[in-house]
Amino acid sequence: MAAGIKSYLKNYLSITKKDWNGLVILIVLLIMVLAAPYAYRLFHKDKLINFNDFNALAAQLPPIDSNNAETNTSGIKNRHPVLFAFNPNHLPDDQWHKLGLDQQQIEVLKHYEAKGGHFSKKTDLQKIYCITAEDYKRLEPYIQLPADGPATIIDINHADSASLVTLKGIGPAYAMRIIRYRTKLGGFYSKEQLKEVFGIDEEHYLLIKDGIKLNPFAIHKVNINKATFDDLRRYPYLSYKQINAIIQYRSEHGDYDNLNDMKDVAILDDATLMKVKPYLVFR
């Protein structure tokens, strides 16, 4: 019995020559994997950084003015330029920067002025070598020089389309929109009302504001105590609900004596009343 067990264990624990060779190869591979990092370090030395050279190069860089870093950095332009009507003669540095020019360009312009240079027409700015074609294309519509202004100041409460198109940036389509809106209102009482015309934004307004005027006495007014719904709906400042409320309150409480009486109409706010005030009479 004991001899049988011994024979069984011997057969179970014994390995073939093929198995032995595989085991040897596995052990060799494990030794190679474990030794690889040490071999790499032996044959590949890390290069040391020479901080003396680095510090010497850093010392050659110009100092940075932290209080004025954006405007004093040559070659860096304002990433968010603001366009507005301007006269390029003796324009302050911060205004040039606001228009999108970098400090190097501004210094060239100031040097040109210091030598007696003067911009008498728009194309003079284009001749300055620091102004790129892209810069000039962007700035040209906003350059305002005496020679570039309109021959006459246009009254927007009387001007026809032929007169309006002489304004910078106003074509036939804009001229017709201005006339239609003027007719709807009964005339303009403020230049800034032009910004209420579809398509005329702040930039358009700045281009034309110095070439226009208005006659406030040309406004067509309506008697609020006799006005019908149709008389009042022309005004873009009043909603249909507000118009109905104005008429209903007048029917119930009698005529309005002044603008303060209209404040009693619940859905009329002060801002709306100030917009319609120039168009109303009470007697």
TrEMBL record:
The record's annotation in InterPro entries points to:
Endo/Exo/Phosphatase_dom_1, RuvA_2-like
- What keywords are assigned to this protein? Membrane, Transmembrane, Transmembrane helix
**Transmembrane residues, as ranges?**
20-40
Q: Which GO terms describe its biological process?
A: protein secretion by the type II secretion system
What are the annotated GO cellular component locations?
Answer: type II protein secretion system complex
Pfam families given in the database record: HHH_3
**Name recorded for this polypeptide:** Helix-hairpin-helix domain-containing protein
